[in-house]
Amino acid sequence: AFLSQYPSPMEKHDMAVETVEEKTDLSTGIIYRRRIAMCWNVIPEILRKVSVLKVPYIYLEEESWLDMQKRNMAMKTRCLTWTQYASLGEESVFRASSENPDWTDFTQKGRISVTGAGLRNCVLEAFARSFLKQGVKK
């Protein structure tokens, strides 16, 4: 079942998140988690005129690898909704800073590709890029 701690003040768009897989590699100690998030559809109403975009929420898959020995965590997130039209993904890495072990270095990459929406491809890609940039600022 989905957890009821959402939405939260930090993640206003998340409705629910469920851990669907969790395991620890006994040889390395790395903890792997795969979660599915149900989020409100944030696409502007003007773009929801396209019937396929007119859904109340979207699903995201998040995978993470936590290595407590090396003090780092890697995450990959991808959109599970509209996969026939768009590819949207993020990769993030959190690790102890080499300058100060009490600090965290954070790197993130994102990719967006929209196809099959005709002239709307560029508009949808621009919106997605803007939305991802807002998330980075948080």
Automatic annotation (TrEMBL):
InterPro entries the UniProt entry points to: PRELI/MSF1_dom, Slowmo/Ups
Top-level taxon in the UniProt lineage: Eukaryota
GO cellular component: mitochondrial intermembrane space
Every PRELI/MSF1 domain range: 1-138
Record PANTHER family: MSF1/PX19 RELATED
This protein's name: PRELI domain-containing protein 2
Organism expressing this protein natively: Buceros rhinoceros silvestris
Lineage of the organism: Eukaryota, Metazoa, Chordata, Craniata, Vertebrata
